[in-house]
Amino acid sequence: MNQSAVTTAPVSDGVRQALEISLRGAHELLPQDEWVKKLVRSEATGQPLRIKLGLDPTAPDIHLGHTVVLNKLRQLQDLGHQVIFLIGDFTSLIGDPSGRNHTRPALTPEQIQANAETYYRQASLVLDPARTEIRYNSEWSEPLGAQGMIRLAAMYTVARMMEREDFHKRYTTGQSISVHEFLYPLMQGYDSVALKSDLELGGTDQKFNLLMGRHLQHEHGQEPQCVLTMPLLVGLDGVDKMSKSKNNYIAITESANTMYAKLLSIPDTLMWDWYPLLSWRSLAGIAALKAEVAGGRNPKDAKVLLAKEITARFHGAAAADAAEQDFIVRSQGGVPDAIAALTLSGAPLGIGVLLRQAGLAPSTSEAHRLIDGNGVRVDGSLVSDKGLKLGAGTYVLQVGKRRFARVTLG
């Protein structure tokens, strides 16, 4: 990342600081000199810049990967700029082809509405809702109509569209590209026209779509927006980007105990990629912490600090402290104080049926698979016999390291 403007641009300290905040953790800021000019103008006129982030409600929950751009939006919001949280209820009907090697199935309006209802509520755990403008792109996309859509499509060529990496790759390998997928970047770009955006944020996989916004704003006689791309957060596996489909994610609505434990499970090396993207700690503070670990400090100490900070952000400091204590108890083989308690009948019950009825396994066959994998304990003792039957009594069932239930069997 070119940091030269931070040290050489003839700007005020306030603009210099705003640029440094903009660049923190970012992959690319385009064009950086235009963003500096916008910041200078905003400072001189007192007019906040309009900063846009669009998310399509393709799933009901937001995970930590989404918060990378949400965090950046909050940082710019705290500088006094107007942030716009755009819910892509119209573009979700098309389906974003970014990074896909096949056509994404379009969601139904009912699915989109159900997901959209939770999106802003969850985003408000990061953003300041009192200072956030929330919009839905159906507001201007639906009135556009067929005639407006044709005029919009005339503003970009098929040749330019095929320069897009994922389209080019799919075309050259003989994979299908549906015509409606060409409409997605056009409609996302048109969002910037409708909102008169000064800056649009997105992941690195969104660069083509974000630049489309600049192109269409120019076509409509507007000052083009700048583009700020953020790295895609690698998931818990340390390999692929965080995704619900990869099951390597942490949802921001997960319980404090689960969130804390998942954060501690990430590889040590991945922690240093997560820190600048998810933590509010200063870059100097992160560098000092990394140096301490390189000098011999236990890397788990740094991971605990990150886990507690993020857990506290979504659940409060007290819940983060409790989650830390719960993790310690579990890691030492103990049973947490707060576990689900239920009463079942039908003793004697087979262990597989019991785990299923206790909600610790989705099916009896899955329970047997867990037993084969040495993942089941009863009252602290490892279960190896899938034919085990338990008579009347009270038992503490454990699956893996974090799932418990106290069952009274009658």
From TrEMBL:
Keywords: Aminoacyl-tRNA synthetase, ATP-binding, Cytoplasm, Ligase, Nucleotide-binding, Protein biosynthesis, RNA-binding. A motif ('KMSKS' region) lies at residues 241-245. GO terms for biological process: tyrosyl-tRNA aminoacylation. Transmembrane segments: none annotated. It catalyses: tRNA(Tyr) + L-tyrosine + ATP = L-tyrosyl-tRNA(Tyr) + AMP + diphosphate + H(+). It is found in: Cytoplasm. It is an enzyme of class 6 (ligase). Gene3D superfamilies: HUPs, RNA-binding S4 domain, Tyrosyl-Transfer RNA Synthetase. ATP binds at K244. A motif ('HIGH' region) lies at residues 57-66. Residues 349-410 form the RNA-binding S4 domain. Catalyzes the attachment of tyrosine to tRNA(Tyr) in a two-step reaction: tyrosine is first activated by ATP to form Tyr-AMP and then transferred to the acceptor end of tRNA(Tyr). HAMAP family: Tyr_tRNA_synth_type2 (MF_02007). This is Tyrosine--tRNA ligase. It comes from Verminephrobacter eiseniae (strain EF01-2).
